[in-house]
Amino acid sequence: VAPIKSLKMAQHMNDHVPGITIPQPIMKRLEAAGDGAAEEGVTIALELIEAIKQKQGVHGIHLMAVNWEEIVPRLVTEAGLAQPTPQLV
Q: How does DSSP assign 28-82, residue by residue?
């Protein structure tokens, strides 16, 4: 699951990343979100994770946050994949 930060990122992935096709309904959601596309991308990623968790035989999820690594802890927490670990100071 690759969270999408913007419509531009989604368009780039569709046009330039072999094997990646982002469905039109997802593209339309990102476009409609406008300046809130990053938050819509988080919502879409969480929906995908939930759908994957419901599949029989699935024992893990690969999160690939390209140039948006800081979103991973939030996705892991909000998707209920693991408890957050305390930050060391």
A: HHHHHHGGGHHHHHHHHHHHHHHHHHTSTT--------TT-GGGHHHHHHHTTSS
34: left (phi over 0), alpha (psi -120 to 50) or beta: left
pLDDT at 83: 62
pTM of the shown model: 0.87
73 Cβ contact list (under 8 Å, min separation 6):
84
CB proximity list for 83: less than 8 A, separation 6 or greater: 77
Q: How far is CA 72 from the centre of its chain?
A: 9
The residue type at 64: M
Per-block mean pLDDT, blocks of 10 residues, the chain (89 long): 96 94 97 97 97 91 93 94 68
Angle at CA 67, nearest 5°, toward 64 and 68?
A: 70
